Fold these 3 entries.
Entry 1:
Amino acid sequence: MNLFNSMGNPWTADYLKITGELDVDLRSNIAAEARAKIVYERLIDFCRDPGTKDALQFLMTREITHMRAFQLALESLGKPPLSVGRIAPTPGLVDQFFNDSTGEGDLGEVDTRGPWNEGEPWKFVEAPAFQGFKAVGDAAPAIEARSAPPERSEAIQAVLVDELRDLLHAEKQLLKALPKMQKAARAQQLHTLLQKHLAETEVQVERLNECLRILGSAARAKPCKGMAGLVEEGEEVMAEGRKKEDAAADLALIGAALRVEHYEIAAYTTARNLALQLAQPAVARLLTLSLGEEQNAGHLLDQVAQPLMSAARMPSSVR
């Protein structure tokens, strides 16, 4: 079935305004509802039919209901209004207001000042486009272009190196654990998936070594106790699985594998974000590749689990 809007234009994925960040999407929804309310108000102004006006009034009122729901959901997250995403803004730059005005207007208008561009913590700065043409005076602050002060960058890089070394040891543990999990898998699809992920893990180790090389650090692994615990738990799952039916044993094995994947997703996400904050695009790119593989492995494990759940005749409430 083909979908078209009121103007006859076909539906496209451009209609999906989703960022994947819940607070950002909620704010977008609130703004959309506010715009819709204004549209309904204007339609009501043009309308003369009482029944149509009642319908429009109903729809307009529901926009406020939706806004309230979205606003309360946003507040329930407990995030500060300007805390958007995961990567912190550049210190200093975030507090600078660029004066993009060229001065007085044709009718004598002057630049307007207010709480949106003056007072704490604002610093009023001539816009980059004008700094080469206008005399800004010795007291004019310079534009903050660094992603972080040098002393902080050094500290953040130390954290990143620590994360990478932790990940390196985690992946090396998996190089030993995955063949055992693969051998324990009874469904061919699960066996193949674990075999594929073993090959990916070997490449991920190489990427981590390359990341450390780029950062000028030795490719030395740091004992990862978190992964050690997950591997030990996986050993128990495999031992207990020998007494279970095929579907139940594989489902337990998938559960252990998913716990590993989510641990790695968290670790790679943290390391990738640190690399972005440090303006290390080469490192961030390598980590993003590995992160994508871990996320994909998690999705594939979920897919493999679905038919196994049916085979094990689990209640529909837990499917």
Entry 2:
Amino acid sequence: NNVNNLGNVERQEVLTLRHPELVKVQVAMVKKIVTELNGFDNLYYEICNEPYFGGVTLEWQAHIAGVIAETEKTLPKRHLIAQNIANGSRKIENPNPLVSIFNFHYSRPPESVAMNYGLNKAIGNNETGFDGMEDATYRIQGWEFLLAGGALYNNLDYSFVAGSEGGTFQYPPAQPGGGSTRLRQHLRNLHDFMDRISFIHMKPDRSILAGGLPENDSFQALVEPGKSYAVYIHHGRVVKDARPRYQVDATPHHLALELQLPAGTYHMMWVNPKSANVEKSGTLRHPGGKATLDSPEYTEDIALRLTAN
């Protein structure tokens, strides 16, 4: 496909700095894209998708990040730059200061957030899939990642194809991933849940869990101590050699959840991530220490919001 006869190199060397004439063309393309799109505020620039496959060098990625930043110096708007780090989770060493978003793929459970939270940069899970077709799988992965302190989430969605640009394609049962109108509503519920908490003032803190969580269940919490708490509990996990790999327990659950809370009066809301309905609410007058909160009966996952009055 090299119709312009540029960069007659091995494919593993295309995204490196070893061939100046090819890099010159790449830089010109990046400058053109950045200049033409400068007026839009609904985008960020990711340097390269999955650079850890195919020989993409860190030096080339740093060079492209520099081109983006330098080009925008003379333009009205600035955009965030993202770098795709790894599949799964990994601690980032020597982060590029020009990069504001560090993205991972298939980071479930969301260990990438805890490993890199100290960077004070946005940590994303901007691709997941290949875990079966069930909506519950990808709803759980999205909710868990953001309630663990992650900044963004998206999944491969097989309901978008040519001719079904609205995401309504009914894919056959042999698909390796999922996606549906219903799943996107579940993720909209996540968006709305996050909008209702002061997440910019909150930090992930799983240490507030004092008991009441069965083995193999998962717990995440964002906390502004004494003011606001957002908790997410689910019953999904990666199971080695299972098909699909991600398994969700759909049996009914009820929790007597124990949390360490400072003294205060809290408004309590148990939220269904599937419907966004408030399944149970009330007032907690707490003297401080361990508080036991009874959940409604639910399946697959549930969220809890506590706000000090």
Entry 3:
Amino acid sequence: MLGRAGRPDYHDRGRVVLLADPNRNFRGGGREDEVAFKLLGGEIEHVDVIYDRGAGLEETLANVAASGREEDIVSIDSMLLGFADVQKSLKYLSSNGFIRRKGDRFKLTSFGRIVSSHFLSVSQAFLIRESVLSGEDVLDVVTRILTFDALYFKYARRLSQILKVEVPERVFAGAALDLIFSPDNLSRLDSDLERMVLDFSIEFMACECRDAPFCSCSERRFSEYLIELRCNGLDPTGIIDELSERFGMYAYQGDVITYLENALRIVGSIHLIATIFGREDVAAEAGKIKRCVERGKL
């Protein structure tokens, strides 16, 4: 497959490209092109899609956004692959401020419209609303919902040779955290690697959690740092160069762009939710962060 077959919540349809090499065979027998055509021409297996409560609520909220008539909402739900208890979902969404009933129709509240248009889950919506009302720092809220973990060691092979053990390329992989950032192994690295790993450890790994370093604190701190680099004027290429030079690590440009786009979506929803609940201070902070991520400057 080449590329992405559509992004969840963004694309209704994805395109998949199969690249079959007639000169290669599968171990079980058959050329790649033969197997590909067999799969394409075969029968599709039956798949049962089961929504958990959160997914069912999201679908029902989206259906209310599409049409407020209860009859239409039930009809749309019946055409979905999964099943949601529509009546229970409508009651729950209504009692928690996402929708309201007016005659024979349901309408999104201002809160529900923000949640639906920003592709938030119900649990994320609750988290944002509670955080906004308590005046929590905006970036803290963002990184509680969304963290960047697609970070890789630039010198993974060199690290493996020095430590004489296979080091995962992903920085936030559990085995990597255990191997690289332990004091014993840190002292075995050459001076350049030791400096870069130590800088990263001091910047992001200092944590008093009982499960450290296997808690999410390092990912959250790093994600906040990524947003700050963007606000300091760096584009994705500049961010990657900074990570390489300072920490000996790298990320793919597409992953950085995707994270910043999603972070921007979360920040935008915080700004709007803070506005409708009268928290102008939080709205102002979110608006400032939104502008700096969009423009690359404070």
